[in-house]
Amino acid sequence: MAKRILIVDDDFDDLQTMKTLLDKAGYKTVPATNGAKALDMLKSNGFDLILLDIKMPTLSGYDLLRLLREKINHDAKMAYVSIVPQKEVDMENVDGFIQKPFSPASFVAEVKRMLK
């Protein structure tokens, strides 16, 4: 059965790129353009991996990660996908980090690694 991945990013082009790459790699992806939509989707769906942009309006990736860990408390792996340099990112309670911009091959390889 295909692994399910929720992609949360307010940049439509980035969201579509990640979705296309992961769909081609055989994953079942669900896009969300903001944290509120992501929370709604999580109430009714289980995901194996959640990819979070950090810089989003209203609910940042940090805030969303905190909410997911506290309120929903499920076993999904979570990773940031961000333009923010990793050395400036708070990596507490997160399972991985993918730097934007990324190459298609490195992006898919990192997702596969996190889902092992």
Describe the protein's architecture and organization.
There is one protein chain. This protein has 4 helices and 5 strands; from the N terminus they run βαβαβαββα. It has one domain: Rossmann fold. The chain is globular, with a radius of gyration of 13 Å. By secondary structure, the protein is an alpha/beta fold. It has a 5-stranded parallel β-sheet with strand order 2-1-3-4-5, sandwiched between helices.
**Beta-strand content:** 15-25%
Shape: globular
| Helix and strand composition category | alpha/beta
Q: Please, what is the average pLDDT?
A: 92
Poorly predicted runs are none
> Count of DSSP helices?
4
Per DSSP E runs of 2 or more residues, the count of β-strands stands at 5
Distance between the termini: 14 Å
Q: Tell me, what is the CATH class?
A: Alpha Beta
Largest sheet features: 5 strands, parallel
Fill in the CATH topology. Answer: Rossmann fold
Q: CATH-wise, what's the superfamily?
A: Response regulator
The proportion of residues forming helix, as a percent range, comes to 25-40%
Topology:
Layout: E1 4-8, H1 12-24, E2 28-32, H2 35-44, E3 49-52, H3 61-72, E4 77-82, E5 96-99, H4 104-114
Parallel strand pairs: 1-2, 1-3, 3-4, 4-5
Helix pairs in contact: 2-3
